[in-house]
Specification:
By secondary structure, the protein is mainly β. The chain folds into three domains: about 50 residues, no CATH class; about 220 residues, Jelly Rolls, CATH 2.60.120.200; about 220 residues, Sandwich (Jelly Rolls), CATH 2.60.120.200. The chain has three helices and 42 strands. Strands 5, 7, 8, 10, 15, 16, 17 and 19 form an eight-stranded antiparallel sheet that branches. Strands 23, 25, 26, 28, 33, 34, 35 and 37 form an eight-stranded antiparallel sheet that branches. A hairpin with a 5-residue loop joins strand 12 and strand 13. The longest helix has 9 residues. It is globular.
Length: about 575
Amino acid sequence: MSPDIVGRLRPPRLASAPASPAPGEEYFNSTGNTLQFWNGTAWISMTPTAGGGTPVLTASQVRDVGVANQIRAGRQLTAADFTALGLSAPAGLWNLSDLTDASGNGRALSNRNTVTFASGINGAASTAAQFTGADKALYISDTGAADPFRIKTGSWGCWFRTAKRTTGQAFLTKWGASVATASFWIGSNSSNNLQAIWADGATNPVGTSVSDICDDRWHFGVITLDGATVRLYVDGVLEASIASSIILNPNASAPLNIGAQQADGSTAAVGSHFGRIDEAFVTADVLSADQVRGLYCAKIAHGLGAVPSTFNLSVRRARKGAALDPVADFPGGQPVRLHNFTAGALTDQGTGNVTLTNNGAAVAVAGADGSTGGAFNFVAASSQSLSSTDAGLPSGTVARSFGAWFKTTQAAAAGCIIGWGTTSTADSRLLVGASGGITSNNGADGIAGPFAADGQWHYGVVVEDNAAGDGVKRKLYMDGLLVGTSTTLNTITLLGANSFRVGANPNASTFFAGQIDGAFVCAYALTQDQVSTLYAKGGQQLSPSPKNAGDHVEYADSSSVYMVLDTLDSQNAVDLGVS
């Protein structure tokens, strides 16, 4: 054990130190793996982790925002989170597990047309407002000249999540039918960027961010206006800065809205949101970049009872692509088909229990995690594929999800990774297209994603749901990220023998060239969180790698460490020690 000790121990003593030394005396004891230090008034105990110091996190996975036990970023906010950063309590703060105001000002929301609640940024049930477009909003009617949300300068923002693309959506607004009644607006635009609009009663400039924020993941958007500059932050990063001498409209009589604009008890919602919103706030303070990032942090308890002075951080990296557990890794239920190809096996760990047939003698090769014989290699010129009956697979417009790990350099011709049904008319397929981009076809409807024929392992997943609340019926994911959508869902017609295929179209055409691992089909729609979790399933961990804690720790108090771990891969785990 090599603890970091700051200062002198006078005189140093071991186990012979008295249970209660006299005030001002200093001792240390070493008991097992615990260091006890008498600081002159009390004993302080420290047990080191791999990174040293009192353990706070030990091999904790860097789960994405919105997944239970996530430590990447984000937390439920309180008024104290603002005052601890030197700010005043916000004018309004809504955690959105209900309609109450967490700012302490009692500014509760009203609910237009029964907005419901779903899981939020912490992965807990019913902790975010769920919007489905239509005429739905949460609102507070304007109270006149003294209305607390008629701020002249200040900041407004929220966590938000949407898979609805190329559609303008309002997140948090005080915006009426005309600029004379409007003040501030934050939402998404038709280019899938974060957008801010602000008004002085006569003009309404617009600012946009850089990032694509309509990707079915949680993002933290904040707008600040100080009368000289408007700044747009996405996930704690400044993405746009616009010179503007506008002071917000002091006569803005529009209601405050979450999930829309203009809506109140008698006025219909405009610009409705498709997705979820969490931790919305409005404050008259102009947040600095550090304060925005401070609100973006994850909060991790440490239990020292004092503000830590030393932070030790290490990352346990892991290989992606480990074999999936048919029960533990699929919280929505065991998949209908699951082929991990462990040691070259063609057996099925899904409920179908259907063994694949090897057509053309495809060869078992190393899997996505490097395991021996954990994947199959396909040679398109040899017409190789794996096949079985499609009996029992989802048909019609029943919800379904399917995907696989794949690796290819095939860019001159299309190749099907997994699919079933009547090819091109009544099927669902995951492919690499003729230009090398990941693609999903459902009958005549196609989704084109980014380039994937780079010779690296990628994880492709397709989710199809005719009853999707956001109206996005088909979603294409690569490496845990949403890369394409469609609002069309066509039926699947089953064909029987050899019409479920891995490595070719269901009708034994469009053969794939490359490797495939971990093919599965579920008879339900996976959420983005679940897709991300499947992608993050790691293989063998490497030894802990020390990191600069200052790159991730924003600040600390006597009970918690506030961290941002969004630059770490989600299959990795972290150790954190403080002292």
